[in-house]
Amino acid sequence: MSTDVPVLPLIESDELQAIRGSIREIADRFGPHYMRECYERDEPPNAMWEALSEGGFVGINVPEQWDGGGLGMLGLITVAEELAANGSTLLLLVVSSAINGSILAKHGTTEQKETWLRGVATGTKRLAFAITEPDAGTNSHNLRTTIKPNGNGKYVINGQKTFISGVEQSDAILVVTRAVLDDGNLGLPSLALVDTDAPGLKRDKIPMPYLGPDHQWTLFLDDVEVDEDRLIGGFNGGLGPIFDGLNPERIIGAALAIGGGRLALEKASAYARERTVWKTPIGAHQGIAHPLAKAKIDLDLAWLMTQKAAVLNDAGAKAGEASNMAKYAAAEAAIEAVERAIQTHGGNGITLEYGLSDLWWGVRLTRTAPVSAEMILNFVAEHSLGLPKSY
Ligand SMILES: Cc1cc2nc3c(=O)[nH]c(=O)nc-3n(C[C@H](O)[C@H](O)[C@H](O)COP(=O)(O)OP(=O)(O)OC[C@H]3O[C@@H](n4cnc5c(N)ncnc54)[C@H](O)[C@@H]3O)c2cc1C
């Protein structure tokens, strides 16, 4: 077979299996309640991030040349899925490792890679990602955060972003702006790395239900200045770089959802084997067993598509359709798995003690973010089926 053809490994390699073992060991060291403990102390999960960094896992997708593990998105989804299946979801794996790691590896200058990508790969630098705006929402053509040269070799950013994850634990934020051209019109996107303590940047925490210890923020950028070396892809040159970050974002979102779904299913199966309220354990009732079996099938199918998307992405092949489909399938399968696990646990499904309610919002989020189910169906209708666009 030609080595140019991307190959989907149907049996996980010894290397990936060993990685899963190491992730389980790290997760065990912190225990199943680590995320909630951090949340209750209102502290970022720094100790776990550092343990994962020391093991080389947060930058496992980054090329080895830049201190990463060189295993691409296939490596990162293995880390993310195993971690989530052991009770820990780190949103920085999405924004720092998957999005920023992918964009910098492909579009950073040598200097930007030295400064930022090495740090992302080793976990010593953490980067958030800000595209969503209050008034643009899903319609990224409507982005209104602007960047403009100030005539002194610097660029000035003004605007607002919302729902930005993990700013409190990041060194900088990759902000998606629109270039203001010489004629005053808005040009293409430009990507700027803005320090989280930059003058002119303010943030408000958005009150959220339990999603893990990471926070979401509304950002206000008021005449924030950046040097030219903070622009990834250059002024008016961010469109290609953004696209190279979006598929990894979807793929990693899918992996985290599937891990959460697997954890829920394992909890539900264990509970249904033991809990007896009539003559047999509740797992003998098909009303309980069949939905769990269906959830297992749907999660495995979604994992297959997620691997496919990762392999295509890593090979530099077209991965948009597979990444969208993976994220859609993973979110739906994981939500159903958590929902059925809650139902299997009766009243205990809603208690904090059994940990299912803690899984709910994190998994439910994936139907909405990083891209909503509706927008994926729009993509498939338009691009895969050639149907006309309504919006
Ligand atoms: C916990 C959390 C973390 C997040 N982290 C980040 C982050 O780190 N960085 C970041 O930039 N963003 C982040 N987001 C934002 C997230 O990506 C957006 O919330 C998501 O893309 C949806 O955008 P919106 O909320 O503006 O919804 P809207 O665009 O207002 O959409 C509302 C609803 O209308 C539907 N809809 C809109 N247009 C159409 C259409 N044409 N056809 C059919 N249906 C349509 C949508 O699917 C959705 O169901 C996060 C969000 C959450 C909740």
UniProtKB/TrEMBL annotation:
* Cofactor(s) needed: FAD
Question: By its UniProt entry, which InterPro entries does this protein fall under?
Answer: Acyl-CoA_dehydrogenase (IPR050741), Acyl-CoA_Oxase/DH_mid-dom (IPR006091), Acyl-CoA_Oxase/DH_mid-dom_sf (IPR046373), AcylCo_DH-like_C (IPR036250), AcylCo_DH/oxidase_C (IPR009075), AcylCoA_DH/ox_N (IPR013786), AcylCoA_DH/ox_N_sf (IPR037069), AcylCoA_DH/oxidase_NM_dom_sf (IPR009100)
Q: Which Pfam families match?
A: Acyl-CoA_dh_1, Acyl-CoA_dh_M, Acyl-CoA_dh_N
Q: List, for all copies, the residue spans of the domain called Acyl-CoA dehydrogenase/oxidase C-terminal.
A: 237-383
Kindly list the GO molecular function terms attached to this UniProt entry: acyl-CoA dehydrogenase activity; flavin adenine dinucleotide binding
Q: Where is the Acyl-CoA dehydrogenase/oxidase N-terminal domain?
A: 13-123
Q: Known SUPFAM superfamilies for this protein? A: Acyl-CoA dehydrogenase C-terminal domain-like, Acyl-CoA dehydrogenase NM domain-like
- UniProt-listed GO biological process terms: fatty acid beta-oxidation using acyl-CoA dehydrogenase
Q: Does the keyword Oxidoreductase apply?
A: yes
The organism's place on the tree of life at top rank: Bacteria
A Gene Ontology cellular-component term = cytoplasm
Domain Acyl-CoA oxidase/dehydrogenase middle per the UniProt entry, residue ranges: 128-207
This protein's UniProt keywords: FAD, Flavoprotein, Oxidoreductase
PANTHER family listed in its UniProt record? DEHYDROGENASE, PUTATIVE (AFU_ORTHOLOGUE AFUA_7G06510)-RELATED, MEDIUM-CHAIN SPECIFIC ACYL-COA DEHYDROGENASE, MITOCHONDRIAL-RELATED
Give the protein family. Answer: Belongs to the acyl-CoA dehydrogenase family.
Q: What is the protein's name according to its record?
A: Acyl-CoA dehydrogenase domain protein
Q: Which organism is it from?
A: Patulibacter medicamentivorans
